């Protein structure tokens, strides 16, 4: 599958920073630097997901055994 340990680590990092930013915002202490860090973690996580899924799809299409499965998906 396309999910791996790198994505798990990125998801944990993203969740950590998002939760920290939300907690600060709930307390009424908006922190632009913390929000920026959470946004960067989110972007990195989602970009990495897109890259892994695309790479997995291309590998799937490259395998001649899966040609009819791929045709069914398209």
Q: Tell me the helix content.
A: over 70%
Order of helices and strands: HHH
Stretches with pLDDT under 50, minimum 5 residues? none
What's the total helix number? 3
Number of strands: 0
- Summarize the main sheet: none
Inertia-based shape: rod-shaped
Strand composition percent:
under 5%
Mean pLDDT across residues: 93
Number of domains: 1
Radius of gyration: 18 Å
Report how far the terminal alpha carbons are from each other: 19 Å
Broad structural category: mainly alpha
Summarize the structure.
With 74 residues, the protein is an all-alpha fold. The protein is built from three helices and no strands.
Annotation keywords:
mainly alpha
Please render the helix and strand layout as text.
Elements lengths: L4 H22 L5 H31 L4 H7 L1
How would you portray this structure in words?
It contains 3 helices and no strands. The chain has 74 residues and is mostly helical. The protein has one domain.
